[in-house]
Amino acid sequence: MRLRNIPGAREEVSKDERCFGAGDDTKGKWSGIFGRKAPLMVEVGMGKGRFIIDMALKYPEFNFLGLERYESVMVKALKKLDRMKAEGAEVPGNIRFFCGDAAYLTDYFENGEIDRLYLNFSDPWPKERHAKRRLESRGFLKIFGNVLKDDGIIEFKTDNEGLFDFALSELEYAGYELLYCTRDLHADSSEMQDNVMTEYEEKFSAKGNKIFKYRIKKHI
Ligand SMILES: C[S@@+](CC[C@H](N)C(=O)[O-])C[C@H]1O[C@@H](n2cnc3c(N)ncnc32)[C@H](O)[C@@H]1O
To answer: Could you say which DSSP state residue 11 is in?
Structure first.
C-alpha cells in the first residue's frame, strides 16, 4: 500500500466514534462496543476497507472490525462510509475500526474474543531477515491463536506465491489445521460463490495473477 501522509488523519481517526485505538479500553469489551453479542470477525491490515465494509453489508448478523496500523489509510475507509451515506446507499451499522499493530492484538482483545480473522494480501516482506514481520509467520499465528476462540478460523488470500508457500510451511509450527487450500481461487466455482473481493484482489486478478487462499482452524 503506497502511503501518503494525509494531514489531519490522526485527529480525524481519534475523534471518530467508529474508530478505536491502543489508548481505548477495548479488551474483552467488544460486544458492548457493538451494542450486541454476535460473532466477531476481524480483518488484519484492512487497507482502505473495501472487503470489511462489503462483508459487513453481506453478513449483518456478525460484528466486523477492520484493523489497520496507519491512520492515513484508515481515513479512506471512513470517507468511503461517509460517501455511501451521502449517496443514500445502505451503510452497515455492524462495523468498527481499530488503528493499531497486529503485534499487540492481545492488548486489544481478550483471549478467545475473536471468531474469525481475515488476512488479505498481507505485506510480503520478501527479505528473509524480515520473515518474522509476515503476518502468516508462526509468531503472528501464535498471537492470533490467543485472541481466537477455540475453534476459530483464519482465512488468508494473496497473489504472492512465495508468501503463500511460506504461510503453508509455518502451519506445522503453529497449531492449526488446514481446512481448505487453493492455488487458483477464482477457478474454484464453489468457493467463489461466497467470495468477497478485496481491493488488491480485484487489481491483481484483473492483471491475470492467480489468487491463493487457505482456511485454517485453531486446534483446541
Ligand atoms: C497490501 S495492503 C492490503 C489491503 C487489503 N487487505 C486488501 O486486500 O486490499 C496491506 C495492509 O495491511 C496493513 N498492515 C500491514 N502490517 C500490519 C500490521 N502489523 N498491523 C496492522 N496493519 C498492518 C498495511 O498498512 C496495509 O494497509
So the answer is: H
Domains of the chain by range and CATH? 9-218 (3.40.50.150)
Give the pLDDT confidence of 87-124 residue by residue, as tens digits.
Answer: 999 999 999 999 999 999 999 999 999 999 999 999 99
Question: What integer pLDDT is reported at residue 105 of this predicted model?
Answer: 98
Torsion sign, CA atoms 170, 176, 180, 185: negative
Confidence class for position 3, pLDDT limits 50, 70, 90: low
Residues with CB under 6 A from ligand 1: 1, 44-47, 67-70, 73, 101-103, 120-123, 198-200
Radius of gyration of the chain (CA): 17
Atom of ligand 1 nearest to the CA of 200: 9
**94, 39, 43: which is closest to 73 by C-alpha?**
43
Pocket test for ligand 1, best of 6, 121, 204, 213 (most atoms within 8 A of CB): 121
Residue with cell 484483473: 206
Taking the C-alpha atoms of residue 81 and residue 75, their distance in angstroms, rounded to an integer, is 10
Nearest CA to ligand 1 atom 16: 45
CA-CA distance, 183 to 24, in Å (whole number)? Answer: 39
123, 150, 151, 165: which one is catalytic? 123
Distance CA 3, CA 1 (A): 6
